[in-house]
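hey all, quick one before standup. I had two proteins in the batch that finished overnight and I want to keep them in one place so we stop losing track of which output belongs to which input. First protein below, input sequence then structure tokens straight from the run.
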Amino acid sequence: MKRTLKPVIFMVVFAIVAFVASFYTSSCKFDKCKSIVCAYGGVCNDGACECKPGYQGPYCETISRNKFLGLWQVEEQGTITPHRYYALSIEVGNGKDATLVKIHGLYNYFGTLLGNVSGDTLTIPNQQMQGKTIFGKGYIFSSKEHGDFGSIRMYYEVVDTATGVPDDFGVYSSVDTSKPSVWIR
């Protein structure tokens, strides 16, 4: 009986050691998100914050649209409009939605257009106003000449709804050799 009891005791001890080792290693895993706090409703996943739309940064601490807000000096020439300079402004859109902005004075013609911000991109969704349809997309960037977020390259098009004639600012540059509108602070 002593001979049959030894293997049973060995198996029981081995099972206990395996269980303890398994429990010990699984309980010692490091939680990469334990000390990370993500702002504005962001969620930590595997040590990095995943931000809600409209927020960015390592901890979602930056409201993306804020870098677009303010007064911009525009230089542009469309496919039918002459070379010109004018000012426009970008303001906060709906205070609850961090992606929305209002653009005042675009094309040196429009009152208030709506736009959406995602990261470094400003999108003007297709909208009609004052007998024209407008849409476009632009990108904000830093440069030595204009500093942090001091310039936007805006690719947009304005179409006269009565005649169907487009005025292009870089949207179809491969077809009509148009150039984007340049906005500088």
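OK second protein, same deal, sequence then tokens:
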Amino acid sequence: MRGTGKSLPRTTLCDIFWSGLGSFLGIALVAVLNYKLLDESDAVLLIGSFGASAVLIFGAISGPLSQPRNLIGGHIISALVGVTMMQLFPNILWLAAALAVSVAIVLMHITRTLHPPGGATALIAVIGSEKIHALGYLYTLIPVASGALLMLLVALIVNNIHSKRQYPKFWW
């Protein structure tokens, strides 16, 4: 419990700037599309787990959990699991929630797509609004896959503008 390592070194001002700019642009793109294009419909494009994904794909771009395979695969697998658990146990929300997160983690490990925000994506499928529940498996495509792909597009552009930043480290 005492810990055996040292804390991370201080982040450079350059990395802080690009992390802030990238996360702003990534979330802004998804949010603008959500509120300007989809606001009149029942569709949703912006979910809370994208905030955590932004931390990883803009703030920790070298980490294995931040790479495209993990971002896209982790969210999609978790969304499928979350919707499935909600459909299997619609009247036992505590069980659906616990199974959604734990099964998503297990499947992300097996598929080598571990992405921590995926746990939240699975949980949102269970505890989300009626608008989310009404989507059923469409939740996997819109908002999850499409929103993650939009954020990935921004990450590919912003994280490669400065010569000292390179994203991704690997694709698959």
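Flagging for whoever picks this up: The mean pLDDT is 94. The first helix runs from residue 13 to 37.
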